[in-house]
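haha ok so turns out i had the wrong file open the whole time. this is the CORRECT one, sorry everyone. sequence first:
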Amino acid sequence: MTQPTLIRREGAPLRTALDLANRSVPVLPLRPGKVPFGNCPACRDNACGGRPNMKTPGPCTCPRPCHAWAAATTDPATLTGRPWATAWAQAAAVAYHPGGIGLTVVDLDHTDAVAWARRTLPATRTVPTTRGEHWIYQGAMQSANAVRPGVDIKSTMSYARWLGPGTGTMTALPDTVRALIVKEPSPVRPASRAVTVPVPVGGGECPHRMPAYLERGIAMAEQRITQATNGVHAAVYRAFLAVLSAHGRCGCLTDTHMARLFAAAQAKGESPRHCTDAWANALTRLGL
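then structure:
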């Protein structure tokens, strides 16, 4: 069967897939329920070791992983040949592999998640979905589900449903999105109040070093936070931990020093609550 004949028979999903593939976007067909097809008999019912609903490929080599994101392709011959020639007749939608073209999709599943994104994330290209929106950024990262209520990250080793090109200018993947998959160390005890550091007696001089040593330490911590390119949560915690390790027991830290560190963290997108929790975690870790 010729490609034009197949396109006429299988309809819109295949036409969309071939158009995207022609633009170097790796695509695959989806069954109803946004579930990929198994493309060979050995992969039916996850017999190849894939995860439930075949959303994650197994170790099959037939001749390569043949479903989920690993099946996404830009090859027209693969898209129109067996076994996909019959899959398109049943396809409910087209999916693509965002990480395969250097993109990240922030999948916002409801209106509260969309409202959070509008308050928190840089504006970028958006695509309406059935219940929310996809926010698409230039840059790939690790995928993760449920990074916060109603928010999934779809990039490498994941697929997203194609719902159109969207509107708006695509912007670079921000640290605030990368940081969503970074988990802060769990505190031994929760911080129930704001953490403050009393002004020490004795002029704030470090008893074991010159006063310039403290200033240099604070400046280095500020720089470490400011230059963080990903994992901002973890970078802030590590900077706080380093400062408190050196100066938390000698009585030289003041509220002004802490305010400088908090200001650097908030300039990178951290909330006051995140700063307070990270400071409390560092204090707890050091037994202060």
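The longest strand covers residues 103-108.
again sry for the mixup
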